[in-house]
Amino acid sequence: MPEFSRNWPAPAKLNLFLHINGRREDGFHELQSLFQFVDHGDLLHFAITDDGHISLTPEVEGVNHDDNLIVRAAKLLQQHSGTHQGALIELKKQLPMGGGLGGGSSDAATTLVALNQLWQLNLSVDTLAELGLSLGADVPVFVRGLASVADGVGEKLRPVEVEEPWYLVVAPGIEVSTAEIFGAPDLIRDSAKLAQPEFHQTQWRNDCVGAVIKRYGQVANALAWLIEYAPSQMTGTGSCIFGTFTNQEDAQYALAELPSEWQGFVARGRNRSPLLDRTLQP
Ligand SMILES: C[C@@](CO)(OP(=O)(O)O)[C@H](O)COP(=O)(O)OP(=O)(O)OC[C@H]1O[C@@H](n2ccc(N)nc2=O)[C@H](O)[C@@H]1O
Ligand SMILES: Nc1ncnc2c1ncn2[C@@H]1O[C@H](COP(=O)(O)OP(=O)(O)O)[C@@H](O)[C@H]1O
């Protein structure tokens, strides 16, 4: 049996705010968003081989092996570096998909960071972030591992230090299409750009929430439930929402009351991602 390097975390992210500032000529939206990590996510294990083959177990339901962002990230790294090494990858999927928690992007970033180390490629973080951007707008922030305000279409990142509260994240059990929400005629897309939005907590909001709750009743219902316990917001283009708590006990109490039709978890906000901490361990 090959030896596995175990427990590489792929944490979830939350968009503490998501302001949409305009639409570009190419149809993509200019946005400002604050990304923070939480200490809950998927877990990956890697064993290095010398046959150049990339395999992932178990398969992710509904995603073809070669379309999986983990496999795509590993192959991209092989192409870029010219290495002949391969990898057996095991995935413990814990994050709901298509929920705005960035699980697929985080899995891809963890694969880039872990294989760079295990294949001894010595590529810089800048290079890994650039490779990651070709896989998805949210991959670079996971590669860099620092809570950041993103600008542009999400590619310009400025690390920030914000509070690290406890969150109750609720997954209403549906996937929201990012493309559908960005294409919605009623989407708010004219928010003012703020010079340092992290200092204006009272203005933190998610410009997508109105368009989402109008189309997805489950998100509206979950938000109406959670807001009774704590200030609550949606992450990304949904469907997940999160309540912000000053302590773990109150978040756990609300989780215990969660209606059985929804899934949820309690996690702590992290300005430094668990992946960044893991890279410093043997
Ligand atoms: C807005 C965020 C915030 O985290 O939402 P979530 O995906 O996390 O929910 C992300 O940056 C999302 O980035 P990413 O996940 O790469 O977007 P995709 O699924 O590739 O985008 C699907 C479609 O949405 C539109 N789109 C996406 C991003 C953007 N800044 N402007 C857009 O107009 C485009 O039509 C694009 O083809
Ligand atoms: N390893 C992966 N984990 C999750 N989703 C993946 C993965 N690889 C590819 N995908 C695809 O990416 C889509 C978005 O997944 P995810 O990152 O979890 O959601 P979001 O972008 O809403 O946060 C999924 O619906 C799936 O089709």
TrEMBL record:
It catalyses: 4-CDP-2-C-methyl-D-erythritol + ATP = 4-CDP-2-C-methyl-D-erythritol 2-phosphate + ADP + H(+). The keyword Cytoplasm does not apply. Pathway: Isoprenoid biosynthesis; isopentenyl diphosphate biosynthesis via DXP pathway; isopentenyl diphosphate from 1-deoxy-D-xylulose 5-phosphate: step 3/6. One of its GO terms (molecular function) is 4-(cytidine 5'-diphospho)-2-C-methyl-D-erythritol kinase activity. Keywords: ATP-binding, Isoprene biosynthesis, Kinase, Nucleotide-binding, Transferase. It comes from the Bacteria. Residues 212-262 form the GHMP kinase C-terminal domain. Its EC number is 2.7.1.148. Catalyzes the phosphorylation of the position 2 hydroxy group of 4-diphosphocytidyl-2C-methyl-D-erythritol. This is 4-diphosphocytidyl-2-C-methyl-D-erythritol kinase.
